[in-house]
Design goal:
By secondary structure, this protein is α+β, with helices and mostly antiparallel strands. It has three domains: 92 residues, Ribosomal Protein L25, Chain P, CATH 2.40.240.10; 80 residues, Ribosomal protein L25, C-terminal domain (RNA Polymerase Alpha Subunit, Chain A, domain 2, Beta Complex), CATH 2.170.120; 31 residues. Helices cover 24% and strands 40% of the residues. The protein has four helices and 13 strands. The protein has a six-stranded mixed barrel. It has a four-stranded mixed sheet with strand order 10-7-9-12, with no helix packed on it. Strand 4 and strand 5 form a beta hairpin. The chain starts with a strand and ends with a helix.
């Protein structure tokens, strides 16, 4: 179990106080959930990033708050794209025996045969809703596309589940397919079509001029 150290902080902090926390390399946050009162905390930014890279977005973290340990998951975090920094984190305390439903990333594996023949891999679904106890939630779900020909698709029902979890998506939902390439008209054909249209327009103009003279 990956451990992350945290410190309790006072509630109802001002914007200036939170800014000072961030400038000191810490991230303000809050923990709530199973058998836990809402508690404002702060964690080291570098250590949090390392932890998330290690356990993934749905991983279980052993959060130590002033010598008290609580098993948590990251419910959400706020990110400031202008500053390229995480500004706040919500940790949710969890019951390790209670199932949860979360989104799990789909990871495509292999190179489709159809793509080698000029087809285009189209992935309309990027994550799956999965139900499992926290310890059994997969970090990602691999989908092998190697055998896909042009026109082939993989649906949710085709995914082989290797683990103690349930996929909640509709079985007929398309995960990935290989579609034919989009054909653009050849330059010669486009030029020929433009010339034909120009001839037609000129012919119409001459007919109109002849009609006016009559």
């Amino acid at each position: 179990m990956t451990t992350l150290q945290a410190q309790a902080r006072k509630s109802n902090q001002t914007g200036a106080e939170k800014k000072a926390i961030r400038e000191a390399g810490q991230i303000p946050g809050i923990i709530y959930g199973y058998n836990t009162e809402n508690t404002p905390i702060q964690v080291d930014e570098v250590e949090f990033i390392k932890t998330i890279r290690e356990v993934g977005r749905n991983g279980v973290i052993d959060l130590n708050i002033d010598s008290n340990s609580t098993k948590v998951m990251v419910a959400e975090y706020q990110f400031d794209s202008m500053k390229n920094a995480i500004t706040h984190i919500d940790f949710i305390a969890i019951n390790m025996t209670e199932e949860r439903t979360v989104g799990v990333t789909i990871e495509l594996v292999g190179e489709a045969v159809g793509a080698k023949e000029g087809g285009v891999v189209d992935q309309p679904l990027f994550e799956l809703e999965v139900t499992a106890t926290p310890a059994n939630i997969p970090e990602s779900i691999e989908v092998d596309v190697t055998e896909l020909q042009i026109g082939d698709s993989i649906h949710v029902s085709d995914i082989k589940v290797n683990g103690d979890f349930t996929i909640e998506e509709d079985a007929e939902t398309t995960v990935v397919s290989v579609v034919p390439p989009t054909e653009e008209p050849a330059e010669d054909e486009a030029a020929e079509e433009g010339t034909e249209q120009e001839v037609e327009v000129i012919g119409e103009e001459k007919e109109e001029e002849g009609s006016s003279e009559e």
